[in-house]
Amino acid sequence: MKFIFSFAVFFLFLNCLVTAQTLIQNGCKKSAAKDPKCVQYLEKNPQSKNATNLKEMVIASTKNASSELPKVKSIAVEILKDKNLKPGIKLPLRDCVEFYDDANDSLNDTLRFVNLGEYKSAVSALSTALDVPVNCEDGFKEFDTKSPISKEDNVLFQLISIALNYAVMLK
User: Fold this and answer.
1) In order of start, what are the domains of the chain with their CATH numbers?
2) pTM for the full model?
């Protein structure tokens, strides 16, 4: 009897593992042209690795993007403390900090919408969040200045894009 129970538990665990891996692989195939690191990002996230359906994957990938936001914002805030910053960096960087707050609100809205089953609204909120790193980088281009946070904005864009990709599949 113990053997049968142990086997059943092992089988269920294995099934969940395979389901999450399939969700990761299939979702990333659909977004591979946009993000070649998709699998890598999701496999680093324990919540993604345990997802058993698209809804859980949207939640996991949205939380993954949400966890990146404070890191990017803190880097921007730290750079702003430099008293010798040129206006071409200072002004767009200030805007970026505000944009990151907006993105945080949009990602929180996404989680709320997904939990309510309002998937179109979740897609809209993720689309709004996806604009943030792009708008941030565009601010530096307006000043013909190299962004000191382009690498971080790129990662943020990738993470939000992954969440959006799964949300579109859910809708």
Assistant:
1) 2-170 (1.20.140.40)
2) 0.84
